[in-house]
Amino acid sequence: MKKLEVELCGIRMKNPLMLAAGVLGISPSLLKRVADAGAGAVVTKSLGVEQREGFSGPVLVDLGYGLLNAMGLPNPGVREFCRELEEFGEIGVPVVASIYGFSVEEYVEAAAYAERYVDAVELNVSCPHVEKVGVQFGQSPELLREVVEAVRSAIRKPVFVKLTPNVTNIAEMAVIAEDAGADAVVAINTVRGLAINPELRRPELSAVFGGLSGPAIKPIALRCVYEIYQRVNIPVVGCGGVSTWRDAVEFLMAGASAVQIGSAVYYRGVSVFSEISRGLAEFLNSSEFSSVEELVGIAHRST
Ligand SMILES: Cc1cc2nc3c(=O)[nH]c(=O)nc-3n(C[C@H](O)[C@H](O)[C@H](O)COP(=O)(O)O)c2cc1C
Question: Among all residues, which ones are annotated catalytic?
Answer without folding.
Answer: 127
